[in-house]
Each structure stands twice: as structure tokens, then as C-alpha cells.
Input
Amino acid sequence: MPWLGSVKAVLNLYLGGQAVGEAGAELLYGVENPSGKLAETYPISYEDCSSSETFGINPRQVEYAESIYVGYRYYEKAGIPVQFPFGHGLSYTRFKFADIQVKMGESVIDTSSACNMADNESKILVSCKVKNIGDRSGAETIQVYVADQTPDIFKAEKELKGFYKVYLEAGEEKEVSLELDWRAFAHYDVSTGKWEVLTGKYKILIGSSSEDIRLMQEVNVEGTVDLLGYEAIPDWYIRPSGKPTVSDFEKIYGQEIKPFEPERPGEYTLLNTMNDMKENPVVQQIMSGMREGILQSCGGDENSSEFLFTISSVYNTPLIRLVQQGGGATPLGLMQAAVACANGDMSAAGQLAAMMGNM
Output
């Protein structure tokens, strides 16, 4: 967002639907109070993303080499600053959080006591008070994170475990409660093949975003195990720095990642794309015709975003989807003939030429 410093504010409307114009105007003029929160992190640059060196390299295969370090879990662990944090969202009013409390049943849980999370019926109740201290009504989303303080080495700094949106008039205060079950503290143990809860200390955090933490309560948890049964973990997953490699991922995945082998002539089907078969001269003619038609419909500007988006979508969409979504512009017979020619059956070339001549 290189233009960010040139504007006073950013209103993100996502997919607002047909009434987005009216809704946007009411937000800008203060008729309504924006109360949304980001469901993702906005990095400063794409290169900051943990998957930037592994995603999109092979158009048909993706290795999730970053493992659990997605979004805020990666940026926090690696110490990378972001443009806008997960859960961020501004308002025309302000909210104050106070009086965090953690209870199991009727018992208050703090560092002087412990909660038993060793069975799948275990639950705790996290609560706090939220007050609108501004001069107009609005809504705030209370976000509850759990920060694992145990000796476990393969974990995020904290993870979102619950959230609740509360609407408050100016000056109004409400108590908000969220229930966390045993899974909020669990990790998967490869040695037992089950989700296990590590015994130890955890922090219950309440915030307005992943970076804006307002309240904290440390608790002692009695779990199902004292240690998790990890095999050797590559250093990157303990202290993320730079980007993960596929070889690192193979070690925690436990298998070799085999490169995807694209289909070759004789193997193509309607599930392939034009770009998959683009080495075939007949397919090249079809692609050229598609390009000319799309270019004409986009006003003849081959550098326009509309043209570039449309041509990329058409060339990289499975042929059967072009048939289903093309509104008759890409009939089934045409696509079947194209596949036949790409597979070396040139007897379909005549049928293909006739169909293209009638389009």
C-alpha cells in the first residue's frame, strides 16, 4: 500500500454487495459507526509473508512449508512488523476493558490455583467488563488469545481462541464472557496420535486486536502430559527467521515432497487448462482467437487490468469450467475437440475448424 501515507484514513468494505455505495457513504459521513475487524494480517510487503518463496512456484502444487506459522502467528514469532495487525479495526468511539476473570465452575482461577484441563469435558469461563467511553454508540470485538508458557518449543507466541462482538451505547458498560474448552490449550502429539494438553503456565489475553492486548491473567493448567513427543524439529520452526525450505518441511512432514509432474500429450482431459496444452499448434490458434475476442471486449487496451485479469482467468481455468461458465461462448464440443487435438488426434481438427468458423 505505497499510497497509505497520502490518505487520512482507509475504509475497507470487502465484498459489500449491491448496497455497498449507500453503506460506505453512511460510514464516511458518520451516520453509522464502522465496527469491523480485520480477519487477516496486512503485511508491509508480500516478501514479508512466510509463504512468499514457496507459494505460486508450481501452479498445480503448493507445499505448506510454513506449517502453523500463518498470519499473525508467523509475524509475531519472527518479530516482523506489519501494516495492520490481525483483528484491527478503528471506530468513531473508544472502549475500555477492565476486570478480567477466569473461572472454572464457581472457582476463580489465577496463579495461586490450577484448572484441570485433562479431559474433553473441561471448560473455563473468561470474562471482562467493556465500557464505551466515547460520545456515540458503537460495537467492539473482544478477542481472547491463549499464550502457552510451557517449555514446548514448536508453538506460536499466542493464538486466538474466541471472540465476541458487543454493541454499546455511549457510556454503557457490559460484562462479556467467553467459554474455552480443553482444545484451547491442546497441541497434537505425534507420539500418542492425539491432542494433548501440556501441564504448565498459560496466559489468557484479552485484546482489541492481536497487537492491542488490554488484559492478561496467568493461569496454571493441569494437562494430560508433561512433554510432547516430538522428533527432531528443524530450527526454523523453533525460531523462524527468513523463510522455510521444502527440505525443512519434509522433516516435520515425515515424507519426501515429490514435484508435480504435469500431464503430457495423450493425458489431457477437460480438467486441464489452455495453458497446460499451449504447446500444441491447434490450441495456440484457439488461444489466439480467445485473446482477440477478449481484447475487443476490453476496448482494445492490452495493458488494462480488465484484459489482463480476464485473459489470465480464461487461460488458467479448467476447460470444463469454461463450458459451464461461458454462456455458450465455449461450447463442450469445442473444448472436447481441443483436448483431442492436444492429445494428438488430429482427426478432430476439421470438426474444430468448422465449429470455430460458426462462432
Helices lie at 20-28, 72-78, 246-253, 281-297, 305-315, 319-325, 332-342, 349-357. The chain has eight helices and 13 strands.
